[in-house]
Amino acid sequence: MPNLYTLIIHFSIFVGRQPLQLSTTQYQNNCHESFSVGQCKFCVLAIWVTGTKGETQTLLESSHLVDAADPASLNLQFSTHIPSIASIRFNIGVDSQANAGGVHTGDLDPMLGMFWTWNTGYIDARLKGQSDSAHAPAPLFLGRPPHIRRWSTAPFPRSAP
After folding, report:
1. Fewest C-beta in 10 Å: which of 31, 67, 74, 92?
2. What's the structural domain count of the chain?
């Protein structure tokens, strides 16, 4: 039986080069307009790791909701048989079967605010905030780019020999 190793994945959320601070920090966009972020949520789907010897392992096949307001959601802990990890690959967004399958439970529970409507499915990523440059009575923005699903690969830095 191979050894098992603990792997903890921590999601750090940044606005540009600044760590995200909900509702307390003013950021500046490319048009030099200031804004604050009050809510940031996104779904992570399917996490794979690749070892330095080319071995692979699927760690997560379902969706995990990352919510900047919930510190516990920023950390995932797994057991892996791979002793030395070269990269992690994951998908941001909700899988098409989950979108077509109606309402779900767990991290896709509609009470968590990521279900759009019965005919459009889930929100892949949500960013709400406020900007004095917005000319609406209740300035906020909500992101639901269609088909945001995209693969992200994070290589691990190699330590010096």
Report:
1. 31
2. 1
